[in-house]
């Protein structure tokens, strides 16, 4: 009887030991799988580019994404879709106000993308490219009237020189008003990817950074790539120049997990009627005109 008890005790001990070993092995496999997933996720980021780490526990306040509206010139040039009439712009801004949209700044957009910071309901970004004089005479007073923050991406070499462009004095007035963010659109608006050397790319990006600092005392952190054109070298130069967020011309909204140096925008031309304007605020796969 005693022997039978001893045999049973040994059998139970062996079974328990095997169970412990199996459980440990499974735990190690799970740990390895998690490490592999983490490594695979990290590969999504561009090599050699230091971007802020995202908190996986953050619950994003706007899961449907943010539309960044892309405008250019305001005026009356029939047949040129990039030139929007003042009337159409006003109708669109009134639509935003009447339908509960809340324009946000580049800083707020960056905080949302990189940190999961809360945003107001129905957020939207308003951006204008290049620096045409109508941004001072039409857009600037209209945005103040609606109390909408907006961003101007400036071609710095054109200031006070090219036809229909603003002066540094006008830009300084706008910058000091705290209603508009003035940011980098390079020195002369080239296709950055097509430039033959890194030095030329650096000159375009860093030169505009220096101009914004010298003339407007702006430590700039935002850029819109001319023609939406860039490559990994351009991104690396932007990071080293202190730029934290970059906008392309690729169509769509910005969502949770968006890479901060490849952010999409929503083109708004003069042919975009109010029906299509409303659609572009709400859908990634909006109709083309």
TrEMBL record:
Keywords: Signal. It holds the Pfam family Polysacc_deac_1. It is found in: Secreted. One of its GO terms (cellular component) is extracellular region. It comes from the Bacteria. CDD domains: CE4_NodB_like_5s_6s (cd10918). Residues 1-29 form the signal peptide. GO terms for biological process: carbohydrate metabolic process. Residues 122-289 form the NodB homology domain. GO terms for molecular function: hydrolase activity, acting on carbon-nitrogen (but not peptide) bonds. InterPro entries: Glyco_hydro/deAcase_b/a-brl, NODB_dom, Polysacch_Deacetylase. Gene3D superfamilies: Glycoside hydrolase/deacetylase. Transmembrane segments: none annotated. Its main location: secreted. This is Polysaccharide deacetylase. It comes from Dialister micraerophilus UPII 345-E.
